[in-house]
Design a protein that fits this description.
The protein is an alpha+beta fold. Helix content is 37%, strand content 18%. It has two domains: 9-293, Aminohydrolase, N-terminal nucleophile (Ntn) domain (Glutamine Phosphoribosylpyrophosphate, subunit 1, domain 1); 299-585, Rossmann fold. It contains 20 helices and 20 strands.
Length: 586
């Protein structure tokens, strides 16, 4: 319902046969680009602010271009970049990227892939990824201490420079080796191009980072790689046959593009890299030791396409598990209750919810109560007029409820900021005059920011946090706020490790309150003025989340247990910033 931006989607293809093989078999020189286009369109859900592609030819001669890149902004960026693809861009290595900004930085400059040029083929590097690094300050300091001067302060550019620097060192290592073997001239170049060990480059680069990532790259000499963070926060999948090797952020993308079964697709493991050498040989290499698995649960709840076999079932279970709590909220009066959902991402959880009732012998009444219209253009500059337009993004099915008689149970995948509920959903649902509205979330209360690639960085954005702070204020518990603020400050103090370092001190703010107390305050804050129907919130439990999604235990949004030190540090900083900004406004 409330669109969250997610960074990002990746797609890579390595053609393992000579290029004329695909032209003869499939009737087009553009076979690789056609597959890349399909992979990117099937991941359009992961990024609509920009897109980019790159290709590398292994056969183009010196004096001709061999490394190509196209980038564009906007929702039609994929169409734009592929319309500019020409036959001269064909190559054996192909890369695609879809971008959502989670940093607030926009413009073509920030669209992936990023390219680092050099006259030595092996030193050319093209990079893209689905990532957000929490310790970019430290990596920047590491680079500048070596005498480098990155042009832009951002994790994408700094990663390009750091990895490019390590790639230079690998090439220089091979140059020395070649000289020791007595090679001269172009024989040295050929030796370097044929012997690059990307594992060396990745180990000496990625060991500096704290964050969630899938980092992908191509080199001018023909190396291709994808590496996943040691906690497995961000997802990556791969497929190989005798014609291609392909990598994508989501499994069904590969299944649809190459007409293969679920079992044919493999998941890149935490800390692991898939590396394809210039000669087409593929290997899986453990770049960093795997840490405690923290695969992102929000991928399963919201971001990834629901067409994945396992995700579809998990989302159904998330809805089904809420049946007892919903029954309690409607006093077991299923006969006088209508069940529905907020389109479109909550639809699968809705099927699970209604299945749960039917499995218990209830004959549930289901209606499509809410409709999502096309996004209305807010061309009117006056704030009140613009807010009124935004409130009509959703519409309702008039007559779908018996006024004053029927309860309405309506499920969404998550409740984050609550803005859409307050400004739109609750207002239009009240027009149906339900006896009671039960707003259901298939995810638990979102209480903490994400720092691994999702656009949720500030505590005050979350309605659960705002409700908790309102409860603290009502009850005069400002000593708790002061203690938390000072603990966060101490945890960030340089020097010897202070007591409590590595702890998320923001968690203490929630401890005095039950979920029900916070729910009631959220309702109070989100309830539009003049609304008649009573509202009750039902959230998924964290235990229910893990039961439904057992292989994706990453749950820091809900309980504040970040998998990396950087996430914990940034959460403590977020609370300091919240208090400091509040004091400035006062």
């Amino acid at each position: 319902m409330e669109q969250l931006k997610h960074e990002c989607g990746v797609a890579m293809i390595r053609l393992l046969k000579p290029l004329d093989y695909y032209a003869k078999k499939y009737g087009s020189w553009a076979y690789g680009f056609n597959k890349l286009y399909l992979m990117m369109e099937k991941q359009h859900n992961r990024g609509q602010e920009g897109a980019g592609i790159a290709s590398v030819s292994l056969t183009n001669k010196p004096g001709t271009e061999y490394m190509f890149r196209e980038k564009a902004e906007g929702k039609d960026a994929i169409t734009q970049i592929f319309s500019r693809v020409t036959e001269e861009m064909k190559g054996e290595l192909l890369m695609g990227h879809l971008r959502y900004s989670t940093t607030g930085k926009s413009g073509l400059t920030f669209v992936h892939p990023f390219l680092r040029r050099n006259n030595w083929r092996a030193k050319n590097l093209c990079l893209c990824g689905n990532f957000n690094m929490t310790n970019i300050d430290e990596v920047f300091s590491f680079l500048t201490a070596q005498g480098q001067s990155p042009r832009i302060f951002g994790d994408s550019y700094i990663t390009l420079e750091l990895m490019g620097h390590r790639l230079d060192r690998e090439v220089e290592r091979l140059f020395v080796e070649a000289k020791e073997k007595g090679l001269e001239g172009t024989d040295i170049t050929d030796y370097i191009d044929n012997n690059v060990e990307m594992g060396n480059v990745l180990r000496t680069t990625m060991s500096h980072y704290d964050g969630g990532y899938v980092m992908c790259g191509l080199t001018g000499s023909g190396e291709m790689f994808s590496v996943r963070d040691p906690w497995g926060i961000r997802p990556a999948f791969w497929y190989q046959d005798d014609e291609i090797i392909a990598i994508a952020s989501e499994r069904p993308v590969l299944q649809t593009t190459f007409d293969i079964q679920t079992e044919d697709v493999h998941e890149l493991q935490p800390g692991q890299a898939l590396i394809v050498h210039k000669n087409g040989e593929m290997k899986l290499e453990q770049i960093m030791p795997a840490q405690k698995l923290s695969a992102c649960s929000f991928e399963r709840i919201y971001f990834s396409r629901g067409s994945d076999r396992d995700i579809y079932q998990e989302r159904k279970r998330l809805g089904e598990q809420l049946t007892p709590a919903i029954l309690k909220s409607i006093d077991n009066d299923v006969t006088n209750t209508v069940f529905s959902y907020i389109p479109n991402t909550a639809e699968v959880a809705y099927y699970g919810m209604t299945d749960g009732f039917r499995q218990q012998g209830y004959n549930v009444r289901t209606e499509k109560v809410v409709w999502k219209d096309i996004k209305l253009r807010t061309f009117i500059t006056d704030n009140s007029e613009r807010n009124d337009l935004a409130a009509h993004v959703y519409d309702i099915s008039y007559g779908s409820l018996r006024p004053g008689v029927d309860n309405l149970v309506i499920i969404d995948d998550s409740i984050v900021r609550g803005t859409t509920l307050r400004e739109s959903i609750f207002k239009i649902l009240d027009r149906l005059h339900p006896k009671k509205i039960v707003m259901v979330s298939s995810s638990p209360q979102i209480r903490y920011p994400d720092y691994y690639g999702i656009d949720m960085a500030r505590l005050e954005e979350f309605c659960a946090f705002r409700a908790t702070m309102a409860l603290i204020e009502e009850r005069g518990m400002w000593q708790l706020v002061n203690d938390t603020y000072l603990a966060c400050k101490r945890s960030l103090t340089p020097g010897p490790s202070p007591k409590g370092e590595g702890r998320n001190h923001v968690r203490a703010l929630y401890e005095p309150f039950t979920i029900e107390e916070i729910n009631e305050k959220i309702v109070e804050m989100l309830r539009p003025e003049g609304m008649q129907a009573p509202i009750e919130l039902v959230f998924q439990s964290i235990e229910g989340l893990h039961e439904a999604c057992p292989n994706h235990p990453g749950d820091w949004y809900f309980n504040g247990h970040y998998p990396t030190p950087g996430g914990t540090r940034l959460c403590n900083e977020a609370f300091i910033n919240y208090i400091d900004n509040k004091q400035k406004k006062q």
